[in-house]
Automatic annotation (TrEMBL):
<protein>
    <submittedName>
        <fullName>25439_t:CDS:1</fullName>
    </submittedName>
</protein>
Length: 67
């Protein structure tokens, strides 16, 4: 069964961050480096995340699907 972002979009249910959370990097090279090492095919998805305050780190973690 195909699950994850390809089938369910940005659902926190499938987040691998733990506790139903998802993370988003400010720079694409951060996301790329978190892909499985040695994988022949690496896929990245982008998402627009609106935050009242910018994250203090280079990664923003969200714990729900919508604002």
């Amino acid at each position: 069964m195909n699950s994850g972002i390809a089938r369910n979009g940005n659902s926190s249910t499938f987040g691998r961050c733990g506790g139903g959370r998802m993370w988003f990097a400010q720079q694409s090279n951060i996301s790329y480096n978190y892909c499985t090492p040695g994988a022949v095919i690496k896929t990245m998805y982008t998402a627009d995340v609106i935050s009242l305050t910018p994250p203090t780190a280079s990664v923003l973690i969200v714990n729900r699907n919508e604002a």
